[in-house]
């Protein structure tokens, strides 16, 4: 009976700790977004913050472009892989989170049949995987992924916490995407080259 009480007490403490981390993280995500000057800065700060607070080795953000998922921000993987790592939504554990529209938690990712290896990320160094889809109006905008070097069985409390964080991140992603599109629209464009110095215009006198 004593062991059972100790287990229940331990579970309650773990849940309380997860709730505290979650509330603190959600508040800090909102503050970070408010301070960011551009889309890339916002996404970089986001994954670094989550990795630090959740105490994982890797936090990555994959954004959806059509039927592909593109690595847009990471803390822990090789930065040179940003924008280069692409997979279809039907590929990898990250794609599985989009297909199922729910979190995918794996203790030993390299041993999973859906594991997709990208040499440029050096992802073979990491074992556990937790991917949570970023859902907006029933559509997946991307996937938030955390990983650790050692195999780890993700608890229900951790999965729920990352689901709540992902819901907060959706707003950041939408804002970052909007800012990015505005930045591209504001870029100076080359003036159209005229075929002739003078042009004839037809009109009604």
In whole angstroms, how far apart are the ends? Answer: 101 Å
Instruction: Report the biggest beta sheet as strand number plus sense, adding barrel if it closes.
Output: 6 strands, antiparallel
Radius of gyration: 22 Å
According to DSSP, the number of beta strands is 6
Helical proportion? 40-55%
Determine the structural class based on helices, strands and strand pairing.
Answer: alpha+beta
Beta-strand percentage? 15-25%
Secondary-structure element pattern, one letter each:
HHEEEHEEEH
Output the strand order for the largest sheet: 3-2-1-6-5-4
Quick check: average pLDDT? 79
- Individual helix count: 4
The unreliable regions are 192-196
How is this structure best described in words?
This protein has four helices and six strands; from the N terminus they run H-H-E-E-E-H-E-E-E-H. 31% of the residues are buried. It is globular, with a radius of gyration of 22 Å. It has helices at residues 2-35, 39-54, 92-100, 156-186, and strands at 58-65, 68-75, 86-88, 104-106, 128-136, 139-148. Mean pLDDT is 79; it is low at 192-196. It has a six-stranded antiparallel beta sheet with strand order 3-2-1-6-5-4, sandwiched between helices. The protein is of the alpha+beta class.
Notable traits:
single chain; 205 residues; alpha+beta; 4 helices; 6 strands; globular
In a nutshell, what does this entry contain?
It contains 4 helices and 6 strands, in the order ααβββαβββα. It is α+β, with helices and mostly antiparallel strands.
């Amino acid at each position: 009976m004593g062991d059972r009480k100790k287990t229940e007490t331990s579970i309650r403490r773990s849940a309380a700790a997860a709730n505290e981390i979650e509330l603190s993280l959600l508040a800090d995500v909102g503050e970070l977004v408010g301070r960011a000057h551009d889309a890339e800065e916002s996404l970089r700060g986001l994954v670094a913050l989550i990795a630090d607070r959740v105490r994982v080795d890797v936090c990555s953000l994959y954004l959806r472009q059509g039927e592909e998922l593109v690595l847009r921000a990471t803390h822990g993987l090789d930065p040179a892989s940003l924008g280069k790592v692409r997979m279809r939504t039907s590929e990898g554990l990250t794609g599985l989170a989009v297909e199922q529209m729910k979190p995918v938690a794996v203790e030993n990712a390299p041993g999973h049949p859906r594991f997709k290896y990208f040499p440029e990320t050096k992802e073979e160094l990491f074992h556990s995987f937790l991917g949570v889809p970023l859902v907006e109006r029933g559509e997946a905008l991307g996937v938030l992924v955390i990983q650790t070097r050692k195999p780890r069985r993700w608890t229900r409390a951790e999965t729920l916490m990352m689901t709540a964080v992902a819901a907060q991140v959706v707003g950041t992603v939408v804002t970052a995407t909007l800012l990015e599109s505005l930045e591209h629209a504001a870029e100076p464009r080359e003036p159209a080259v005229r075929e002739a110095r003078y042009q004839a215009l037809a009109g009604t006198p």
